[in-house]
């Protein structure tokens, strides 16, 4: 294929790769494909047709990959190899699937080594599992790491069975062969290995405690997850293939978790890129504007968290905890505190790690805009950048964005003097209508030349720049419109006419009356 990934669908290439990978001692090829010497003698001089050439009369279009699968010669060879015991796995070896083979060839062609389910020890005696992607060429490299609840398998979720593995292999194969589904990423809200590893970065995707195949209770944005990510960062920093410099990159949950780990001061964390992020999980996430965001959380749990857990989920009842904690200080140890069990708001006082924060100006649950701004303002590092983006999901994986983020990490993780910190630190997308926007580059945030205007609500107009005279000390203003005709309501209705002279009104079906002062005029209580 001469390094051309577009040629991966060639049926001959596919079938050769399937056959070679099937011959390995182990079915897991993280450390290459090692074939027992006796395999050559068992195969012998049998003729193997890898292409099954099409009918040149043009009367049929042969499926050469399926023809290879059904070839009785291949079935015979596999039977002989299984009977000879050349494989170390339990159970009979079957032919490698087309998608699995193409994905392995692609990684080899791009110089990417993949190691699945690497066990990372934690300070509390537990562990988490990670998928590690490294450059194939020898050397030490900076690490880009992420941690979250969505699963580290391709696209999303986790692998528990052979059927799960094949499902995700098919997703990966489709993504790199035309991407008919228009999927924006290799794995949910993490960096794309095909974009980063060939340019000299190792990528580590970890599941948080309780997610995927990991032990422990899954407690969203809790101290357990923050400590686990801290430990993973420092583990990555001392691996023989690491140069000791670790950066975090992630979106939404995987952005917010970065700040929580950074507040615990991991030694090897050298830079952060947090896209669509939040740091005050009371005001910016759980109780936006003081109102509980109750519609979002059950849907998020059912569709995002539950499916990624292998086996019976052990998930903290965070929804009930949020409902029971309507105030920031209801129970800081349980929720919203700097070391809370769930939804912790990290202490960023001592975080000096260079930060690139992105505030997402669109989110169905109203997250990440205020939070992205506050993350930038609350992190006391001298080296930070802020973007305000509209189409943040697609933009995160755009070629221009990836190049800019690589330049940021090249500077802080590789020591490259590339001028990335010399450009204005703040970039704003200002909507101009019909999906268009213009870009502003600024030197500070908030913008120094901002004119702050005080606006007053008025009953006759949407807003006004000047205060209006009030009809009473309460601040109510008479609408500028003709008086409405007073309506008399039937007694059985729950609407009542309040005579001015009556000092007390009894509401039906209540055990005691509600007492009000005499009204200045008759009015309808609604």
Pick out its properties.
elongated, disordered C terminus, 526 residues, two-stranded antiparallel sheet, 15 helices, 16 strands
Tell me the radius of gyration: 31 Å
> What share of the residues lie within helices?
25-40%
| Tally of alpha and pi helices | 15
Low-confidence stretches: 487-526
Major sheet characteristics = 10 strands, mixed
Percent of sequence in beta strands: 15-25%
Which shape, going by the Cα principal axes?
elongated
Number of strand elements: 16
Q: How are the strands of the largest sheet arranged?
A: 1-2-4-3-5-6-9-10-11-12
Distance between the termini: 76 Å
Round the mean pLDDT to the nearest integer and report it: 87
Secondary structural class:
alpha/beta
Give a verbal description of the structure.
It is built from 15 helices and 16 strands. It is of the alpha/beta class and 526 residues long. It has a 10-stranded mixed β-sheet with strand order 1-2-4-3-5-6-9-10-11-12, with helices on both faces. It has a two-stranded antiparallel sheet with strand order 7-8. Helix 1 packs across helix 5, helix 5 crosses helix 6 and helix 8 crosses helix 9. It is elongated and about 100 Å long. The protein starts with 10 loop residues before the first helix and ends with a strand.
């Amino acid at each position: 294929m001469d390094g051309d990934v577009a040629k991966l669908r060639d049926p001959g290439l596919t079938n050769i790769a399937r056959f070679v990978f099937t011959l390995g001692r182990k079915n897991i090829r993280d450390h290459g494909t090692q074939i027992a010497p006796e395999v050559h003698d068992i195969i012998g001089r049998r003729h193997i047709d890898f292409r099954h050439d099409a009918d040149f009369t043009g009367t049929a279009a042969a499926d050469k990959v399926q023809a290879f699968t059904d070839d009785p010669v291949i079935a015979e060879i596999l039977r002989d190899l299984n009977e000879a015991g050349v494989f170390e796995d339990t159970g009979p070896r079957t032919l490698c699937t087309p998608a699995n083979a193409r994905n392995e060839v692609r990684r080899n062609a791009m110089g990417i080594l993949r190691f699945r389910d690497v066990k990372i020890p934690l300070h509390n005696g537990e562990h988490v599992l990670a998928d590690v992607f490294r450059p194939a060429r020898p050397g030490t490299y900076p690490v880009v790491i992420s941690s979250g609840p969505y699963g580290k398998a391709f696209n999303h979720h986790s692998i528990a069975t052979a059927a799960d593995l094949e499902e995700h292999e098919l997703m990966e194969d489709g993504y790199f062969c035309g991407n008919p589904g228009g999927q924006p990423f290799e794995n949910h809200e993490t960096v794309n290995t095909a974009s980063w590893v060939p340019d000299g970065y190792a990528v580590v995707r970890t599941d948080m405690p309780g997610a995927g195949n990991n032990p422990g209770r899954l407690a969203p944005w809790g101290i357990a997850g923050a400590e686990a990510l801290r430990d993973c960062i420092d583990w990555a920093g001392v691996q023989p293939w690491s140069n000791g410099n670790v950066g975090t990159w992630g979106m939404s949950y995987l952005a917010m978790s970065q700040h929580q780990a950074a507040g615990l001061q991991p030694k090897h964390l050298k830079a952060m890129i947090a896209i669509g992020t939040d740091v005050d999980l009371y005001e910016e996430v759980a109780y936006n504007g003081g109102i509980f965001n109750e519609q979002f959380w059950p849907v998020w749990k059912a569709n995002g968290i539950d499916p990624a857990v292998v086996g019976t989920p052990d998930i903290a009842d965070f929804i009930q905890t949020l409902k029971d904690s309507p105030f920031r200080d209801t129970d800081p140890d349980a929720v919203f505190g700097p070391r809370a069990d769930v939804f912790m708001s990290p202490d960023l006082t001592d975080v000096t790690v260079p930060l690139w924060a992105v505030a997402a100006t669109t989110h169905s649950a109203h997250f990440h805009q205020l939070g992205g701004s506050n993350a930038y303002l609350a992190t006391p590092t001298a080296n930070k950048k802020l973007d305000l983006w509209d189409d943040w999901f697609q933009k995160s994986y755009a070629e221009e964005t990836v190049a800019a983020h690589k330049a940021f990490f090249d500077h802080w993780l590789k020591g490259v003097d590339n001028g990335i910190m010399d450009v204005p630190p703040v970039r704003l997308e200002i909507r101009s209508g019909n999906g268009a926007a213009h870009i502003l580059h600024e030197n500070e945030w908030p913008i120094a030349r901002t004119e702050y205007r005080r606006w007053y609500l008025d009953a006759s107009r949407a807003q006004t720049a000047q205060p209006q005279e009030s009809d009473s000390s309460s601040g109510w203003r008479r609408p500028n419109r003709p008086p409405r005709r007073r309506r008399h309501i039937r007694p059985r209705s729950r609407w009542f006419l309040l005579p001015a002279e009556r000092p007390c009104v009894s509401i039906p079906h209540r055990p005691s009356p509600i007492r009000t002062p005499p009204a200045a005029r008759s009015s309808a209580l609604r």
